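The following record pairs a protein chain with its ligand, protoporphyrin IX containing FE.
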Amino acid sequence: MALDDLLVANTTYGDETQIHGLLTDLRKNDPVHWTAPEGYRPFWSIAKHADIMEIEKLNDQFHNEPRSVLMNQEAEHNLAAMWGGPDPKTGRVSPLRTLIDMDGEDHRAYRGLTQAWFMPVNLRKGLEARTVELAKRYVDRMMELGPECDFAKDIAVYYPLHVIMSILGVPESDEMKMLKLTQELFGGGDPDMQRDREEGNSNVIADFFMYFNAMTEARRANPGEDLATVIANGKIGGAPLGPIETASYYIIVATAGHDTTSSSIAGGLRALIEHPDQLKKLKDNPELLNTAVDEIIRWVTPVQHFMRTNMGPDYTLRGKTIKTGDSLQLLYLSGNRDEEVWPDAYDFRVDRENNRHVAFGYGAHVCLGQHLAKMEIKAFFKELIGRLDSIEMTGPSKRVQSTFVSGLKTLPVRYKLRAA
Ligand code: HEM
């Protein structure tokens, strides 16, 4: 397969050695690479940490709308057909208007609706104790399943799912439905995750819409204490959010909030198993948990990319002209292994200080849930490390084949855990 086709193939992302090899070559040989694969509108692949930050900072010029995530032309066509799009004004193909599809004032206003919820001070007040309790519940479950389990499938997926769904106000009985829909949406390129071909991705979005429209009606009729109530009853410029914007808001919180965190937890555990000296260091020095969490997130980098489009004027990056209208793919996984930032980028070190990774992005769109994600990951590893006598892998792990959100889908392990 040609380089440009490999760069957009879901299978490349399912194979860690292959994707890291490709990105290392790109950083070295052509870090601002014009990528023109078969079946895709061409775009620039941005592989260096400094360039990713530079583009993210210039969010007035480099917009998320109309192309925030990479899709092939067939998928773009199918999405647009679902709602009579693309939008004639902006060119957006997705029927959703989530925070990641917005820019400027609009984005600031919509983000402002829930920003306070996700601030560390409010998380500490409302959620920290609950996360610690849930971390214990899931380590207990791991112990019950022992001495062996598939950590990715049996544990890592459920804990962040439960945290985010309880914040949002989705009842526990609907969590499996949400999990399935998120996996279908993000892992659409992976045969183990995707819906049957006939149905495609558009119906996944339609199912989300149906579910969340009912939720809006319920929260408007009977407001509660959950995040869904804040969204359903929120006002922008004095008016309630439209139906598309409301459902899109739930969808971004519901989906962005767990797959990413689950991937970090599963990938983090594998990194610790593969680096027994680092596992020992963390066990002996639990005060290193904060730096360990950031290192885990850098190491795993579950979100492989987001896209931006140049609104003008033309822009020069490393001598290449990014023309007005050109799209760029910010390759976070590559930025987080950039040898220029970390000469030892391929070493996993739980005590890494000043970890300026870009796994949460940067600038106006920087991950809204980053403090929550870190709190969850820290609570989990604190509980696990404190009770773990031994752990080893019993077979190969497998990665989700997706150019967007990836991580381990299987991690078979054998272990000895102590009761709390
Ligand atoms: C380790 C876990 C996570 C990772 C690696 C991650 C990564 C990211 C990245 C890369 C972005 C785009 C940033 C940019 O464009 O500059 C993002 C945006 C976002 N994330 Fe996360 N995320 C994680 C967990 C969460 C959690 C727990 C939530 C909770 C709801 C969340 C909610 C969001 C939202 C709402 C946005 C859109 C923000 C905006 O466009 O203004 N994420 N995340």
